[in-house]
Amino acid sequence: MIQIIDLHKSFDGLEVLRGVTFQVAKGEILALIGRSGYGKSVLLKHVAGLIRPDRGRVLIDGEDLGRVRGRELERMRGRLGFLFQGGALFDSETVFENVAFPLRERTRLGEPEIRKKVMDLLEQVDLIGAENKYPAQLSGGMVKRAAFARALVTNPEIMLFDEPTTGLDPIIACAILNLIESLHSHFGFTGILVTHEIPSVFRFVQKVAMLHEGKILMVQTPEEMQSSMHPIIQQFIAGCVEGPIRYH
Amino acid sequence: MKLVRKVGAFVLFGVGRIGRMGFFLIKAFFYASTPPLKLSRVLKEIRFIGFQSTLVILLTGAFSGMVLGLQGYYTLTRFGSEALLGPMVALSLIRELGPVFSALMVTGRAGSAMTAEIGIMRNTEQIDALELMGLNPFRYLIVPKLLAGIMALPLLSAIFNVIGIFGGYLVGVKLLGLSEGTYFSEMGNYVDMEDILGGVYKSLSFGVLVVWVCCYKGYYTGFGAEGVSKATTQAVVLSSVLILVWDYFMTSLLF
Predict the structure, then answer these.
(1) What are phi and psi of A2, to 5 degrees?
(2) Does ipTM surpass 0.90 in this model?
(3) Same domain, A139 and A247
(4) What is the pLDDT of residues A188-223, one digit of tens each?
(5) Min CA distance, B130 vs chain A (Å)?
(6) pLDDT digits over A149-203, tens only?
(7) Are residues A174 and A150 in the same domain?
(8) How confident is the model at residue A132 (pLDDT cuts 50, 70, 90)?
(9) Which of A50, A91, A106 sits opposite B133 (nearest CB)?
(10) Angstrom distance (rounded) from CA A110 to CA B235
(11) Which residues in chain A have their CB less than 8 angstroms from residue B116's CB?
């Protein structure tokens, strides 16, 4: 469903992506791991069509996201949901208004149907009672859950998660991952999950890809990844300072 | 050679920025002229840019008119022409001060807020979120502000003029003893429709200018709180300077 072929991207002469290639099959979730600041979010924004590649292609069901413009791009984006690192909730609107926003703007549903759909979804993400609160009044975990509800409200075929557990305590982080797992089995979306939650995510993702020095080092199942003898993967999963990955 | 290269790079950078600003305006007008139009957003922006600026316009308009009345009276008295105080106050306000001061006030009150709002939305990925919902940020954020600016500025300018003329009346007639009939009848003799239309055209163009500069600066803001604060300052300074520069060209064209 998602194919990324030989993707290159530079910013001010700094080459961030140097020929990334991988694919995600329909209904699968792929966990994208790698060091912080090395292009995982940039890669995810390419899949969302928010950044255009210098070279290479992002195909969604065979359609090249880098070549479509205007309404066609808007239509393709309508198939995507994106959970931003900071939630990206509209801060002048309540949780209910945030979740209802895509339905009000993109569909012809009446207000009673919108209310029902939003409240059902808020119940699924355990935010009943917080629907009239503004994002500034929510905890980090609640912001993520509200943003997740907003991303899911239009039943996207593809969900992109940009470090959904960053800045959360381990219990809330685990709750968010459980939520992704249960909503994935409920909605059946295809997903890419940028994360550092290793090995927690391994229990429900189908594939794991490691981005290293601008390229995909390996795409494997979680089991293969955990038993990999590759020194870089071993060091990264174990979280060791000693090894081939240098840090500054 | 190094100096030439630096100058060249500076010129290219400047031309690039002007081009990007121009393209931003063209895009805004393109989306404003094609459906769908977010009418509720336009009304919300009219309330913010127009209605909520009324108080500051009333205050500045009243005192500008009063100062004009005072200064005008003493200056005209030197030439024995104090009977022309009414036309002097009215023409100064309608042709220049009303449109220019209203635009400057809107820049300070609403323009800076526009830049900060859009800048924060950009930095917190809210604009990206809009795009990912398949919504065009121009249509949703910029167009309503542009249309509201075009509609609100001439109205605010008209309010400024009316209250300014009343301020001049208070000082000239009630305080300094000029005859009420002279103040208003001479105004009727000297102020033409052309003067009023000239003021309206100026306000319309200032409405575009303020929204254009302030939205552009917010849309392409720098990172973090410092980036937004810089963008806001630049937006207010650039808008204010451009209002005065554009006013000169409009005056030389219109009158």
Answers:
(1) -110, 125
(2) no
(3) no
(4) 899 999 998 888 888 889 999 999 889 999 899 989
(5) 9
(6) 999 898 899 999 999 888 788 888 888 888 889 889 988 899 999 998 888 888 8
(7) no
(8) very high
(9) A106
(10) 40
(11) none
- Looking at the structure, tell me whether residues A25 and A95 fall in a common domain: no
B100 burial class (0-12, 13-18, 19+ CB within 10 angstroms)?
buried
Examine the domain organization and report whether A166 and A248 are in the same domain: yes
DSSP B95: I
Q: Residue for token digits 């009673």?
A: A112
Cβ contact, residue pair A89, B126, below 8 Å: yes
A74: distance to nearest CA of chain B, Å? 4
The total of structural domains in chain A comes to 2
Rounded CA-CA distance A92/A136 in Å is 9
Helices (H), chain B: 2-32, 39-45, 54-78, 85-91, 98-106, 112-123, 126-132, 137, 143-169, 180-190, 193-219, 224-254
CA B211 to CA B106: how far, in whole Å?
10
Across-strand partners of A160?
Answer: A82, A192
Residue where a domain stops, chosen among A155, A181, A210: A155
> Does one domain contain both A168 and A244?
yes
Instruction: Determine, for residues A78 and B131 on separate chains, whether the beta-carbon distance falls below 8 Å.
Output: no
B127: nearest CA partner in chain A = A88
Contacts of B120 in chain A (CB under 8 A): 91
Structural domain boundaries enclosing A134: 88-155
Q: How many CB atoms lie within 10 A of CB A74?
A: 18
Residue of chain B with shortest Cα separation from A155? B133
Decide if A111 touches B, using CB distance below 8 A: no
Flag if A81 and B132 touch (Cβ within 8 Å): yes
- What's the confidence (pLDDT) of residue A247? 66
Select from A124, A168, A162 the least CA-distant residue to A146: A124
Residues in chain B closer than 8 A to A75 (CB atoms): 134
- C-alpha A225/C-alpha A208 separation (Å) is 7
| A73 and A164 co-located in one domain | yes
Residues of B in contact with A74 (CB under 8 A): 134-136
B135: distance to nearest CA of chain A, Å?
7
Residue written as token pair 């913010």: B48
User: What is the distance between the alpha carbons of residues A94 and A99, in angstroms, rounded to a whole number?
Assistant: 9
Same domain, yes or no: A165 and A127: no
* Prediction pTM value: 0.86
**Chain-chain contact of B132 with A80 (C-beta, under 8 angstroms):** yes
Find the residue in A nearest to B132 (Cα): A77
Contact B207, B153 (CB under 8 A): yes
Is-cis flag, bond preceding A199, omega within 30?
yes
